Amino acid sequence: MKTFESRLLALCGGLILALGAAACVVEFPDDVPYTCTETADCGGDGYVCTSLPNDGPRYCCLPDPAEVCNGLDDDCDGQVDNLDTPCYPGPAGTLDVGVCRTGDSVCAADRSTVCVGAVVPGTEICNGLDDDCDGDVDEDFDLKTDPVHCGVCNNACTFAQDCVNGECVRRQELDCANGVDDDRDGFTDCQDREDCDDQSCGAECVCRNGSKTEMNCANGLDDDGDGLIDCADRADCPTTTVCQREDGAPGQCQVNGVCL
Description:
Elements: H1 9-20, E1 48-51, E2 58-61, E3 86-87, E4 103-107, E5 113-116, E6 161-164, E7 167-170, H2 193-196, E8 200-202, E9 205-208, E10 211-214, E11 242-244, E12 250-252
Antiparallel strand pairs: 1-2, 3-4, 4-5, 6-7, 8-9, 9-10, 11-12
Signal peptide: 1-23
Protein name: Tryptophan synthase alpha chain
Keywords: Signal
């Protein structure tokens, strides 16, 4: 390869002056650069007439197959260390899958080769793209149940909603007798009237008007858990309520909370 390093610029100028006074036929050693106007001036054998970077003097150069990081214009295109080689540091089988693309090889200051601009597999995020380059899009997200990505990516349900079959719906109290605020709205069981009015709060217990109501005043049980059994629970078992007397016969609750 004949090439022209910046440190040889002064030498080349001297040769121009010297050669101008020489005979018509001159033998040039392989390691000495010489000037030219066009490629025909370079004597063939693959030599081309190119110029130093930044429109410097034109000189004859024998191209190498590829540019390498060595401070020289190896491919004789007038540029030093301009690698024209795509690169891809990602795993095999991921190139051109999803978002993964090649980058460009460039020369670093220490003359090593680095790859810049390549897109390699990353963490899958919900964005309609194949970020991890595995051939699937948004596969880590269940758009039917994910409250942050409900139905489509980045469609977030409110605090009081659940994502059900890809739609944000109001969260409801799931059990009106478990002592838990299932829908996290600040109301537990029967207190959550929107969800629990007229719903069961246990055996022989129904939610009414925001509280538990005893529904059987003749079973000898405190069905609503308020500490009062049958007729003694006068709020739920008024005087007209049918009850069961101690002898097993039917009766009615009385004002004093007994069955007569």
